[in-house]
Design a protein that fits this description.
Blueprint (H helix, E strand, L loop, with lengths): L1 E2 L40 E4 L4 E4 L7 E6 L10 H19 L3 E6 L6 H10 L3 H18 L15 H13 L3 E4 L2 E4 L36 E6 L14 E3 L1 H13 L2 E8 L3 H15 L4 E8 L2 E3 L2 E2 L10 H5 L4 H9 L7 E3 L1 H27 L1 H7 L3 E2 L2 H19 L4 H6 L1 H16 L5 H25 L7 H16 L3 H16 L3 H12 L3 E6 L2 E6 L6 E2 L5 E2 L22
Parallel strand pairs: 4-5, 4-10, 10-11, 12-14
Antiparallel strand pairs: 1-15, 2-3, 6-7, 7-8, 8-9, 12-13, 16-17, 18-19
Length: about 575
Amino acid sequence: MEIWGFCNSRNRKGDSLGFSLSSRILPNRSIETTMADAREFEFQIYNSITKQKEKFKPIVPGKVSMYVCGVTSYDFSHIGHARAYVAFDVLFRYLKHLGYEVKYVRNFTDVDDKIIKRANEIGEDPLALSSRFCKEFLTDMTDLQCLPPTEQPRVSDHMDQIRDMIQKIIDNNCAYVVEGDVYFSVDNFPNYGRLSGRKLEDNRAGERIAIDSRKKNPADFALWKAAKPGEISWDSPWGPGRPGWHIECSAMSVTYLTETFDIHGGGMDLIFPHHENEIAQSCAACPSSNISYWMHNGFVTANDEKMSKSVGNFFTIREVTKLYHPLALRHFLMGTHYRSPVNYSIAQIEISSEAVYYIYQTLEDCDSAISQFQEEIKTSGKKYSVTDDAQKCIKNLRSHFEEKLSDDLHTPTILNAALQDALRLMNKILSMLKKKLQKPQKLSNIVSLIQLEKEVRDVLDVLGLLSSSTYTEVLKQLKEKALKRAELTEENIQQRIEDRALARKNKDFKLGDQIRSDLTSKGIALMDVGNDTIWRPCVPVEPAKSSDDQLAGPPDTSDSQQPGLSRSADVTKP
């Protein structure tokens, strides 16, 4: 593999390097050096309706139509929402990476019982309240680097389509009107339950099924709800009212994607009753209605207990990103396969935060090294090949990336295996460049770094982990979050560094150990680099207790073990 012919571009810091470091994977782009060229692996996704993985084959070759159920906008979104929309953002990005033209629809439910209840409690117009939280949700999605869907329809803008669909269901003898309410008749739809596998006798009243003696069957569900005094309502042939929850998605999906489309997604909690009812409604209105693949993401638990407001273990996205970088939350969510339950814990997100820091510190160090040799590369006039180790690593990263994402979006193994191998090799090369090397070997290593950085960036881009900010800015943001968690300022840390330096000068190594250990317990690691001491975020580690119950610092970094020596540490490793 050779790199030859550089174009004038800018690196992540904005400095002109004379060659491109920022190639991104774009839809419908065919370039030899991108991972999208060789399709060794067929894309397979798990279909909830068939209960098995299936080869993905879109209805229209080259195009994908996808609908994901959005939020009910009456409050700040929680990390369960983040789990769903990060998962489907990875799907959206990967489909685009594969070259598909994707139409991605994600709705807002801005008309709902919860919205009306909250609006009445605080004396706000329901549509104004829901609009406010729609904006807050979009801010959260931007922070988490979720690409904007193609369409983001709101229920309040689609009353005509909803009323039309309800009328079709009535005309097809699958719904009936009772005193201004319209109910779907499950008895008149023989295939009810084919997604969830539930039988009608399982749908007992009171268990997510509203109790109403006017229903022909307790499992019948509302398509249209008659207006109550003081509630927002719209006119209809059955009287003023508003739509039921389930009919909204059926009407909006057919509006934007027609009655047949490729993928419908959402959380596993939506399988029943929401998605089951969607299938019934859509097929009752249009018998040819069909969705090829149903995809569902797993639940989020907190410390191995299902999240619940009543239990008090419920976290909004804002609560998490106040203390942790949004990239750390995204990394954490992708660290578990999207169909498996993910357990949210401080310990796990600390690990993800450090992993993101490691990624960006490596990229930053790589950028700095390349910048030092840019003129030498441009003026050499020779071809320099990528090293054998780098070629092997790049090939493995490409193959591993395609294999794992093609296997039902298996992100955890990408984050923990081939990507880590590439980052380790980059750090190994960076260490070698600090030594005296012959010019050909040195420039071959630089060319290897250039290509490795590009490949890593391509992977991060598809995973949604490549920030639009510079490497330096991301590292700064991560450090700011670490300071906030530690309840310290930059000045506080500098003072402790000076205190430790003085303690070491006075050969008070026990005090030096304690200062380091105290900071480590707060997620701040001190690193001696040459004659300087710098700091970086780390996973908090409680100081160990010695046999006489005295604090002892980590044995591999203890000042007392190496009196008078300055230890150089690789600051890019977590």
